Amino acid sequence: MALEDAKTQVDQAFTRESLRGLSFENAFGGATSFLRRRYTKDLGGVDVAVTGIPFDQAVTHRPGTRFGPRAIREVSSLQAFDPPYGWGYDPMAVLDVVDYGDMAFDYANVREVPARIEAHVGAILDAGAAPITLGGDHFITLPILRAVAARRGPVALIQFDAHSDTWVDDDPDRIDHGTFLYKAIKAGIVDPAASVSIGIRTDNPDTLGVTILDAPSVHRDGIEATLSRVRAVVGDRPCYVTFDIDALDPAFAPGTGTPVWGGLASWQAAALLRGLAGIDLIGGDVVEVSPPYDTTGATAIAGAHVALELIALFGWSRR
């Protein structure tokens, strides 16, 4: 296929016949699934299911991450034509990837959301697919990890973030985007000894044993040294990757609820994600994209690239 196929291809989210292959419809038109993948609730034979959880409840400063999945899907139209640059292979040629759509929930019944997220992601896992989730605030990662750990046991975690999210929170009923990792470690679903947080640049008195590679250390030591430490910590453990978009400096991702200066540049994030090739990735998410605060769309573009890199990471050993 080539770009000339745009003359006949449209709405590939519904009309594409195969779960594999690139798409060449006009980027400015058509139904905007993630990467123009087929929208489907049928997960038979699917390798990767991209899904949205448009939930934000009580972010620190600027709400709006409920619009993240929609914005990420829209800008991903620009990425659907070519394999991700620099990988040396096309993940869409070796993986069956679909857009599983968004999770349904009652916005006025917040208490039921955690269980809904766990069941939603659990259904993806039970079908044999890897979940790549578009958020939503960072709370959503906690019930996702519950679903993963229920099937795989305690996992290693690679977290890209400006905040460690291990502030003390022993109230099981609180739904908080800033304490997901504290609760995950206390619940025994994340192994802190095999986990690392990258890009941190806020103080926290107790990170519960997670290795912290803060943003200044990444800037100072460089990509290869950072990756060497990540690999030493994670080893060959089944690993989940969560990417809070505020891991990036606000110059690269202004559309987030909790911007903090001094963060990663987009090129550093790209190099770090690419350098994780070979890890035993079992799922991942990109969260906290808040489009109302970025009229340029740069933050959503970054989020879409992160999601595509996660798919490429998952497909690396299957290429």
Question: What does this protein look like?
Answer:
With 319 residues, the chain is an alpha/beta fold. The protein has one domain (1-27, 34-317): Ureohydrolase domain (Arginase, Chain A, 3-Layer(aba) Sandwich), CATH 3.40.800.10. It has 10 helices and 8 strands. It has helices at residues 12-15, 68-75, 91-94, 113-126, 141-152, 180-186, 215-221, 223-234, 266-274, 298-315, and strands at residues 48-53, 97-102, 130-135, 156-160, 196-198, 211-213, 238-244, 280-287. Strands 2-1-3-8-7-4-5-6 form an 8-stranded parallel sheet, sandwiched between helices. Helix 9 (266-274) links the parallel strand 7 (238-244) and strand 8 (280-287). The longest helix has 18 residues, at 298-315. The two termini are 20 Å apart.
Short description:
GO terms for molecular function: agmatinase activity; metal ion binding. The chain is α/β, with parallel strands linked by helices.
List the helices and strands and how they pair.
Blueprint (H helix, E strand, L loop, with lengths): L11 H4 L32 E6 L14 H8 L15 H4 L2 E6 L10 H14 L3 E6 L5 H12 L3 E5 L19 H7 L9 E3 L12 E3 L1 H7 L1 H12 L3 E7 L21 H9 L5 E8 L10 H18 L4
Parallel strand pairs: 1-2, 1-3, 3-8, 4-5, 4-7, 5-6, 7-8
Helix pairs in contact: 2-10, 4-5, 5-6, 7-8, 9-10
Family: Belongs to the arginase family. Agmatinase subfamily.
EC number: 3.5.3.11
Protein name: Agmatinase
Could you list some keywords that capture this structure?
alpha/beta; eight-stranded parallel beta sheet; 14% strand; 319 residues; Arginase, Chain A; globular; 8 strands
